[in-house]
Write a structure and sequence with these properties.
The protein is an alpha+beta fold. Helix content is 53%, strand content 15%. Helix 1 (2-25) runs antiparallel to helix 3 and helix 1 (2-25) packs across helix 4.
């Protein structure tokens, strides 16, 4: 009974986590989930614009796409081996890829993988919910595995003991 109620309680969270986990594992394979990383002109960092300049170019590019919105940069992902800087915004799940050397906009597209990840880990609701739900989910799965093993092994062991006591 214990196993059943924990399983029922965790079912929706496990289903959401499993579906979003599958989508996240495929994010590099489907451009709609995460735009493919472009290539810049050079990987020589000394020829690159400063992060401050790239920051300004990224903000301007976002403003050009959606002039009626204001944007906050979430992070800047530097890919020296590709010659690219990805400017990621909190709003619109927007990703702007810039050539590190010239500042040319190479790509501007939504990055749905970040939104899917926030559903996957529960942070879409709050960081406290993420902490509680991920721990509950993790411990719940551990309990389900242990109790499931016992529900399988326990009766086998009893049948074996009964069989041995008859002989």
């Amino acid at each position: 009974m214990f196993h059943r109620w924990i399983g029922i309680s965790l079912a929706a969270f496990l289903l959401i986590s499993a579906i979003t986990g599958v989508l996240l594992s495929l994010k590099k394979d489907f451009d709609i989930l995460q735009p493919p990383t472009q290539k810049g002109q050079t990987v020589d960092l000394q020829k690159w614009k400063t992060l401050e300049e790239l920051n300004e170019i990224g903000l301007a590019a976002a403003q050009n796409l959606y002039p009626d919105k204001s944007y906050t940069i979430d992070r800047i992902d530097v890919r020296p081996s590709k010659g690219v800087v990805k400017v990621l915004f909190k709003e619109e799940n927007l990703e702007i890829q810039l050539d590190g050397a010239t500042g040319t906009v190479l790509s501007a597209a939504p990055r749905w993988s970040d939104w899917i990840e926030s559903i996957h880990d529960g942070s879409i609701i709050s960081d406290l919910f993420k902490l509680i739900s991920m721990n509950a989910l993790g411990w719940g799965v551990v309990i389900m595995v242990v109790s499931g093993f016992w529900l399988w092994y326990g009766p086998r062991r009893l049948r074996k003991k009964r069989k041995e006591s008859r002989t």
